[in-house]
C-alpha cells in the first residue's frame, strides 16, 4: 500500500506502524517504525511526540515505501537502515554480519569493567563480525590494545569501516580459528562469541534471523556443539599470558558443560554469569 503524503511526524508514524502491525506485535511494530523513521528520514521520536510538521519529498516517500516493503518481508530494520545500536554507538551492519545483541553488551560490560584500570594489555576477539566487541572495549577501556579475527573477509571489511567511523584503534585480520594458532603468551584477554545455535534449534528461530543473518556466524552442528569453544579454550591456554582471562558468550543450554570444559583444561577462577533474562550466557576462566 502506498504511503500518502503526510504533513506531521506523528501521522507518518501511525501510517507506517499500521502497515506493519499485521506482521508484528503492536509494540514491536511501533519500535521498528521509530527506528526506521530516524534511520531513513532523520525523524526522531521526540519530533514525533511533538507532532512536528513535516515536508516529505516524493523521493523520501519512495525510500520509505521501499523500506516498508522490505520490513513486510521480515528483513531486520537494522539491515534496512544500515546500522544497529550497540553500547550507545552506531555500528554498520548488513547481511554479512550478525546484528549486535543486548546480551553481548553485557559480556562487553563485564570485560571492560574488569580490565578498565589495566594498561598496555592485549585483547583478542575471535569471530569479530561487525567488530562491536573489540571496538567497544577499546573505547571503554583504553588501556586494552584490541585485535579482532574473523574467517569472513566481507565481515572484516565492515569491522574495519566501523573502527574508522568510531575512531577505534583495532587491528583486524582474517583467520579460521579451527586451523589458526596463537603465539604463546601473547594476550592478556581473549574473548569470543562463536557460533553456538545448534542446527536442531533452527525451527525455534524467527524468519528474520534465519533468512537474513549469516548462518556461518550463527549455527553449529548438533554432533559437536562446543567445537569452537574447545578449540579456542585449548589455544587460549597457551596463547594467554599467565593470569590472563578467557571470556565466552555461550548457548544458555550449555552453562554447566562450559564450566566443566574450562575446568578440565586447567582454568581457575571459573565464573558463569546469567544475562538480564536469567539465562546462562557468559563464562570466564583464568590461566595460572
Task: Summarize the structure in words.
This protein has a seven-stranded mixed β-sheet, with helices on both faces. A two-stranded antiparallel ribbon has the order 1-2. A two-stranded parallel ribbon has the order 7-8. The protein is an alpha/beta fold. The relative contact order is 0.10. The protein has helices spanning 9-20, 26-41, 45-49, 58-72, 77-81, 102-115, 132-140, 153-165, 207-210, 215-218, 227-239, 255-264; strands at 83-86, 89-92, 121-126, 144-150, 170-174, 187-192, 197-198, 219-220, 240-249, 268-274, 280-286. It is elongated. It folds into two domains: 9-73; 84-286, Rossmann fold. The mean pLDDT is 93. Helix content is 42%, strand content 21%. Helix 2 packs antiparallel against helix 4.
Compile the SSE list and pairings.
Elements: H1 9-20, H2 26-41, H3 45-49, H4 58-72, H5 77-81, E1 83-86, E2 89-92, H6 102-115, E3 121-126, H7 132-140, E4 144-150, H8 153-165, E5 170-174, E6 187-192, E7 197-198, H9 207-210, H10 215-218, E8 219-220, H11 227-239, E9 240-249, H12 255-264, E10 268-274, E11 280-286
Parallel strand pairs: 3-4, 3-6, 4-5, 6-9, 7-8
Antiparallel strand pairs: 1-2, 9-11, 10-11
Amino acid at each position: 500500500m502506498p504511503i500518502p503524503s503526510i504533513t506531521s511526524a506523528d501521522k507518518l508514524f501511525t501510517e507506517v506502524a499500521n502497515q506493519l502491525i499485521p506482521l508484528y506485535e503492536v509494540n514491536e511494530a511501533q519500535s521498528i517504525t521509530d527506528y526506521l523513521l530516524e534511520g531513513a528520514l532523520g525523524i526522531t521520536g521526540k519530533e514525533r511526540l511533538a507532532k512536528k510538521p513535516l515536508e516529505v519529498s516524493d523521493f523520501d516517500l519512495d525510500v520509505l515505501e521501499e523500506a516498508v516493503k522490505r520490513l513486510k518481508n521480515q528483513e531486520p530494520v537494522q539491515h534496512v537502515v544500515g546500522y544497529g545500536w550497540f553500547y550507545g554507538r552506531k555500528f554498520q551492519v548488513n547481511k554479512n554480519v550478525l546484528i549486535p545483541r543486548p546480551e553481548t553488551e553485557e559480556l562487553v560490560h563485564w570485560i571492560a569493567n574488569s580490565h578498565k584500570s589495566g594498561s598496555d594489555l592485549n585483547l583478542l576477539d575471535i569471530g569479530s563480525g561487525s567488530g562491536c566487541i573489540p571496538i567497544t572495549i577499546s573505547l571503554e577501556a583504553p588501556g586494552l590494545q584490541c585485535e579482532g579475527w574473523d574467517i569472513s573477509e566481507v565481515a572484516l571489511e565492515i569491522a574495519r569501516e566501523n573502527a574508522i567511523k568510531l575512531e577505534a584503534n583495532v587491528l583486524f585480520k582474517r583467520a579460521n580459528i579451527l586451523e589458526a594458532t596463537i603465539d604463546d603468551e601473547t594476550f592478556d584477554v581473549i574473548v569470543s562469541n562463536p557460533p553456538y545455535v545448534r542446527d536442531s534449534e533452527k525451527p525455534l528461530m524467527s524468519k528474520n534471523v534465519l533468512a537474513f543473518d549469516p548462518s556461518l556466524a550463527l549455527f553449529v552442528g548438533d554432533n559437536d556443539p562446543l567445537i569452537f569453544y574447545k578449540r579456542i579454550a585449548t589455544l587460549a591456554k597457551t596463547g594467554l599470558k599467565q593470569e590472563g582471562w578467557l571470556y565466552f558468550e555461550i548457548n544458555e543450554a550449555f552453562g554447566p558443560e562450559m564450566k566443566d570444559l574450562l575446568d578440565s583444561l586447567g582454568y581457575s577462577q571459573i565464573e558463569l554469569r546469567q544475562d538480564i533474562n536469567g539465562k546462562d550466557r557468559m563464562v570466564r576462566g583464568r590461566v595460572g
